[in-house]
Amino acid sequence: MTARTGEVARLLREDLRGRTPYGAPQLDVAVRLNTNENPYPPSPGLVEHLAATVADAARSMNRYPDRDALALRTDLAAYLTRSTGTPLDVAQVWAANGSNEILQQLLQAFGGPGRTALGFEPTYSMHQHIATATSTRWLPVERLPGFALEPGAAALVVNEHAPDVVFLCSPNNPTGNAVDLEVIEAVYAAARGLVVVDEAYAEFSDRPSAVSLLDGRERLVVTRTMSKAFAFAGARLGYLAADPAVVEALLLVRLPYHLSVLSQAAASAALDHADELLATVDAVKVQRDRMVSEMRGLGLDVVDSDANFVLFGEFGDERGTWQGLLDRGVLVRDVGLPGWLRVTAGTEDETTAFLEALRQGMATTDGEAPG
Ligand SMILES: *Cc1c(COP(=O)(O)O)cnc(C)c1O
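ok -> structure tokens follow
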């Protein structure tokens, strides 16, 4: 019996029937470059510090955690202040189990039945997914050629549809390009609803953060995560910066004690090692830029990337290319965009393995040549 047939299917919300769950393949392959993780595991020093911090936290595990995660939010505010140059205080920062939970809380509070969320596609598929899960109508708008956004056009479409929530993803997943601050300003000015800038990959970009635009913009929200640059995907920690009124609104929908004692302690400990964790960012960017130039050398189209991944194409049969790479031990992401594939920048060795597998595939299969 599946959720598509039988009794359960009859009981399931109509708007969820026939949907497929989010699912990047988790395959046991030598080179995994499909989920934009940081390839460098934590140092032994950090692991030790984490273990000690968690052991300490475990002593009070009979008690519920701090519901409002004040200590962790203070650390996150300090990190954002330091890294963006925009002073933020604890009341402007909120944290949850991954930025996906942050996005879900935002849509629970500001979306929902009868409301709409607009996004510029192709973009992070979870924006649509979470919209659907919260019964928020999804309004997809196509990006310009080259996957660009332009202030005038973006503002126009936002003004026309007047969505309750607008998502801007910068750098954008899966295309890799960042959104100019002018676009964010124009969209904000045109929007009546909440404007959410998903900055999951901000640390890989040299551009200014949308955090610098928060002052005086009560409806602007910037979401971040420790899953990518911070090499902390397994711990599940995402956060946002916004007006304190937005944070207060999320308290209405968050589950009490949503962030465990262990998550809060581990994230605070990791933030103590921020410089060390982020030191790998430069190494990742070197491999990203190497992939861009070598793939262009192979005659492929590659979108400029401000993130830790690269969108490349165009293939007549991207599924065939994906399988060909997998057969050679390299897992990349088929993001469902005809002609294109996405690859995460890994270590130098992983990147070499990917480029080698790609070259071999292109040399041996006519169908995999750029189309
Ligand atoms: C990976 C990613 C996230 C992060 O999700 P977490 O729940 O924090 O792991 C958020 N937004 C985008 C665009 C991403 O690619």
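The chain has a mean pLDDT of 94.
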